[in-house]
Amino acid sequence: MGVYDQDRSWDALHRGACHLWHFRTASISDPILIKRGIEFLSADELARHARYLVPDAARSFLAARILVRSVLSLYAPISPSAWRFEPNRWGRPYIANPDAPPGLLFNLSHKPGLITCLVGCGRDLGVDVEDASANRPYLREIAQRFFSATEVARLVELPEAQHVRRFFELWTLKESYIKARGIGLSLGLSKFSFSVEEDPSPTCATVTFDHDFEDDAETWDFRLFRPDDRHLIATSVRRCPTPLIIETTGAEELVFHSLTAPDGANPPGIF
Ligand SMILES: CC(C)(COP(=O)(O)OP(=O)(O)OC[C@H]1O[C@@H](n2cnc3c(N)ncnc32)[C@H](O)[C@@H]1OP(=O)(O)O)[C@@H](O)C(=O)NCCC(=O)NCCS
Predict the structure, then answer these.
(1) Where does the chain show beta strands of DSSP type E?
(2) pTM above the 0.85 mark?
(3) What's the 91 CA to ligand 1 centre distance in angstroms?
(4) Which CATH number characterizes residue 97's domain?
């Protein structure tokens, strides 16, 4: 089923869905498409893009901008190049177009090879992607530094074979939660503990907050996704009265359409 056969609309977000888009950076290599993508950027983004000295990092930054702009244009009659963003004091970008649908919210995460964008309406949401394929050094030391005492204790009890997997599950969950809160590391990473549901393949998690931590664990929905053999994605979404559906879609077709359509055109069949 193609992107345009699915209900990726503002109405679907309004009914309680969140849409998780993922995009492989390697899929944008044609110089003509790259040139077109650069035309989407605002003056600020152009300046940031020019500061990247490493070509792969510049391409990843550009691909993230193109992805966010192309995705958001599915939900409002605003062309990809017309979106405007303003960061809050902790650096989280929010939509700044006065004519954007009220409550439309996104969060972005990028790691080499893959970019993800989570979109929803009127609720806190955050996403994090990590390359979880390799056993990197110092995972135990990193866990000791950033995880809660409960998380570290559960982690060291696991057999060696499960250790790396669980490390990245906890890391992405914690990161997606602080991103959903939008106030960065000021939250205090060791003041909340994630617990990942076991077999067959962990996809859901729960959280416990320290008694002096201001939030209600019951209001959150946490999930894990594996879009390929290498990457792990975690989402943190504030629950609302309707059941939460998170639909995942590859964004390659959508981005290609954006980059080849005349500016101002929204994908067919949406508006
Ligand atoms: C700022 C922070 C969001 C960076 O996260 P990251 O893992 O380096 O990067 P990601 O690719 O996942 O996310 C970056 C994107 O999040 C968004 N973002 C920036 N600040 C944000 C904030 N305060 N809240 C939510 N989202 C934010 C931006 O869109 C950014 O991309 P952009 O700069 O291209 O627009 C923050 O979580 C951080 O500093 N983390 C440090 C890592 C750490 O210690 N983690 C401990 C986990 S146990």
Answers:
(1) 17-24, 85-87, 93-95, 104-111, 114-121, 125-131, 192-196, 204-209, 220-225, 231-238, 245-250
(2) yes
(3) 8
(4) 3.90.470.20
